[in-house]
Amino acid sequence: MEIRPDLPGIQPQLARLVQIANAFHEFNMEHWSHLRNQEDYDQIFRLPNELRDPFEELYRTGRDIAVAFSQSLSSIERVSDAPTITSYVRQFEAGWLHEFPQLTQVRDSAERASKTIDHSPWAVEEMIKLYTKQLVLLTNVKDTLKEIKNSDLYRRELNLPPLEIPWYRTFDKRMVAIMAVIGIIGLWLTYRQIT
Fold this sequence. Notes:
- Helices cover about 70% and strands about 0% of the residues.
- It is mainly α.
- It folds into 2 domains: about 10-165; about 165-195.
- Helix 1 packs antiparallel against helix 2, helix 2 (about 50-75) packs antiparallel against helix 4 and helix 2 runs parallel beside helix 5.
- The protein is elongated and about 90 Å long.
- The termini are far apart.
- The model has no long low-confidence stretch (mean pLDDT about 90).
């Protein structure tokens, strides 16, 4: 997989987002559909609405997230969809990445409903696990976008100065070790001359 060469300095972050997009695509095409249509999910239709509704909301929201993020995260690969890193990041400024309490509530409602029935369908339990995986991935997306916003490229596109790196973070650990050894040798030589 080749990340666009016109976006220097953030290739690892973009590669991570593309891999997450692939995971969402797999969740959409293989897991959500399979759990809904080829397992025991249809058992929920025998339940009263107040028990069935949280399961249907879990499916709807989970599948929608998988579809949306498989498409939006992979848009970085298409210049026509994301000509700049700024345009790519802006598409995530509103929406599910900023609605974690509501998204968590969807899962929690389904978990509560599954505990109130004698034999929760296996498909529902697997959907809850899949939905939870997606929430973890959304957290990773949010963190990765934060890294991108701190990049020189993103800041340059917005005409912002690069972030100042504290002087002590520019030192390599090997350089610090070498300086410590030189300092110790210098102290030892000074001590030898005095005695």
